[in-house]
Specification:
The protein has 2 domains: about 90 residues; about 230 residues, Bira Bifunctional Protein, Domain 2 (BirA Bifunctional Protein, domain 2, 2-Layer Sandwich), CATH 3.30.930. The protein is built from 11 helices and 9 strands. The chain has a 7-stranded mixed sheet with strand order 1-4-5-9-8-7-6, with helices on both faces. A hairpin with a 2-residue loop joins strand 6 and strand 7. Helix 2 packs antiparallel against helix 4, helix 5 packs across helix 8 and helix 5 crosses helix 10.
Length: about 350
C-alpha cells in the first residue's frame, strides 16, 4: 500500500510538471496520462496487488488521481482551444492558403476499376448486390444444398440473430440475382467486397474484394472462356506473361479450372507470395453448372455460359509489387502515398 502511495505522489508531480503550450501538447498529455496505454492505466493495474483489506482505500486514492488528471486535461483543453480561436481571429485571411496534397484513389480501387475497364471492352456491364445475403442466393442456388460438404470450402460469417443470413462469401450471389431476372443473354461483371473467416496473413484476409464475370448465351463454350481470360491477362500484365490453366473443382461450374500467371514479385524464383512456386493463382473459372441454370429457371439445353471470379488484392499485389496483402487495409499513410494521383 505504501508503495502505491508513493507511485501516486510521483504521478501527481508528473501531471503538474508536464509542459502544455498548444493543442499538440494537450493531446500528448492525454496520451501520456489518460490514454489506453497511459500512466493511469498502468498504476491502476497495481490494485490487484494490494491486500484485500486495503483495496477500498487504494481505490479511493486511484479515483482521486484519475479525477485530478481529467480536470487538469480539461483545463489545458479549454486554454489551448481559446488560444487557437484567438489566433485564428488575427489571421491575415488575404494570405495564400497552405498547400494541401492532392488525394488519390486507393490501389485496390484502382485495380478494380482497371479490371472492370478491360472487360468493358468486351461488352461486359457492371451489376451489384447486397453484402448481407440469404442462404439461397449465397449457397443453395449455386448447387450447394444444405449440408453439402463443399460449403466447408468457405468458412462463413453467419448473422447471429438469423443463421439463414450470412455475410456473402463471394459475389456469385449477384450472378444468381441477375439470372433470376430472366433477361438473356447476360454479359456481366460483379465487383464487390466479400467476407470469409480466414486466418489473416500476407496472402489472405477475412475481408477482401472480388470481381466475378458471367456470360450466358446460346452455344457459349470453354474456348470462349479461355480467350476472354487470355485477353484480360495480356491487357493487364502484358503480352509476355506466362499463363497456365489447372483442373479444379467448384460446385457451381463444370468443368472448372484455376488460372495461374508467372509471379511478378520474384520473377519466378520463388517468394512467400507465390509459395516458392513461381506461379500465382489469380482466378477460378468454369462453365456454369446446369443445376445452377435450372435453379434460375434457365433451360440448360438451350443456354450455356461461363463464369469466373478473381480477388482484387492479389492482382494489385502483382501489379504494384506489394508483398503483404495486409498493407491494403492498414491505412498507413506512408504506404498510400506511394500511389500518387493520376490523371
Amino acid at each position: 500500500m505504501e508503495a502505491l502511495r508513493q507511485q501516486l505522489v510521483q504521478l501527481r508531480q508528473e501531471i503538474d510538471a508536464f509542459p502544455v503550450h498548444d493543442a499538440i501538447n494537450t493531446e500528448d498529455f492525454r496520451i501520456r496520462f489518460l490514454g489506453t496505454m497511459g500512466a493511469l492505466k498502468t498504476v491502476m493495474a497495481e490494485l490487484k496487488n494490494v491486500p484485500p483489506e486495503q483495496r477500498k482505500e487504494a481505490g479511493q486514492l486511484l479515483n482521486e488521481i484519475k479525477s485530478y488528471a481529467e480536470s487538469v486535461y480539461q483545463q489545458h483543453l479549454d486554454r489551448t482551444r481559446t488560444t487557437t480561436v484567438e489566433t485564428s481571429r488575427t489571421t491575415d485571411r488575404s494570405r495564400s492558403g497552405s498547400p494541401q496534397p492532392i488525394g488519390s484513389r486507393h490501389p485496390v480501387t484502382r485495380m478494380k476499376n482497371e479490371i472492370v475497364s478491360i472487360f468493358q471492352k468486351l461488352g461486359f456491364a457492371v451489376a451489384e448486390g447486397p453484402e448481407i445475403e440469404d442462404d439461397w442466393h449465397n449457397f443453395g442456388a449455386l448447387n450447394l444444398p444444405a449440408h453439402h460438404p463443399a460449403r466447408d470450402m468457405q468458412d462463413t460469417f453467419y448473422v447471429q440473430q438469423n443463421p439463414d443470413w450470412v455475410l456473402r462469401t463471394h459475389t456469385s450471389s449477384v450472378q444468381i440475382r441477375e439470372m433470376e431476372k430472366g433477361t438473356l443473354p447476360l454479359r456481366l461483371l460483379m465487383p464487390g467486397c466479400v467476407f470469409r473467416n480466414e486466418t489473416i496473413s500476407a496472402r489472405s484476409h477475412c475481408f477482401f474484394h472480388q470481381v466475378e464475370g458471367l456470360y450466358i448465351d446460346e452455344q457459349v463454350s470453354f474456348a470462349d472462356l479461355k480467350q476472354t481470360l487470355y485477353f484480360f491477362v495480356q491487357e493487364m500484365y502484358g503480352k509476355d506473361v506466362q499463363i497456365r490453366f489447372r483442373p479444379s473443382y467448384f460446385p457451381f461450374t463444370e468443368p472448372s479450372a484455376e488460372m495461374d500467371i508467372s509471379c511478378f514479385i520474384c520473377a519466378g524464383a520463388g517468394c512467400p507470395v507465390c509459395k516458392k512456386s513461381g506461379w500465382v493463382e489469380i482466378l477460378g473459372c468454369g462453365m456454369v453448372h446446369p443445376n445452377v441454370l435450372r435453379n434460375c429457371q434457365i433451360d440448360p439445353e438451350k443456354y450455356t455460359g461461363f463464369a469466373f471470379g478473381m480477388g482484387v488484392e492479389r492482382p494489385a499485389m502483382l501489379k504494384y509489387g506489394v508483398n503483404d496483402l495486409r498493407l491494403f487495409s492498414e491505412n498507413d499513410v506512408r504506404f498510400l502515398r506511394q500511389f500518387p494521383a493520376v490523371s
